[in-house]
Amino acid sequence: MxxxxxxxxxxxxxxxxxxxxxxxxxxxxxxxxxxxxxxxANGIGLAANQVGYMKRVLVMSIxxxxxxxxxxxxxxxxxxxxxxxxxxxxxxxxxxxxxxxQVQTRAESIKVQxxxxxGQTHVGEYTGINAVCVQHxxxxxxxxxxxxxxxxxxxxxxERKLEKRRG
Length: 167
Ligand code: CO
What we know:
It contains three helices and nine strands; from the N terminus they run αβββββββββαα.
């Protein structure tokens, strides 16, 4: 299966993904391909429905200072704790390249429960841009594109720029 990044507003980006129940070699192959696609596109996060695989899988690179980790994989991720404090950072998306906006509701730090490719449960803690990235990707898995969470002015700006690109 050859996967590629779907551009907004592909309807698969607006569709909720299903829980992963079977942790088999097909899943592993998709995850490996997602990591490859994300790194090649210079992204720091990618949700499975962005490549048309409708399961709750995300890959991301963690930023530590200016260094990016090798890609991590989070399966069936769930936010179990979030800070009151908001992150105050802009974010972009590989499904709408070059458009960066701040989503006001992103928590500055979060705790996430997830499974690895073998079905083992883990808990991860993320702050700053890494926390924003996880929240953005989990929204994808819930069929929510970040444009839906922008204030009216930014949303209008985004739609206008996309329209211009389509020509
Ligand atoms: Co995105």
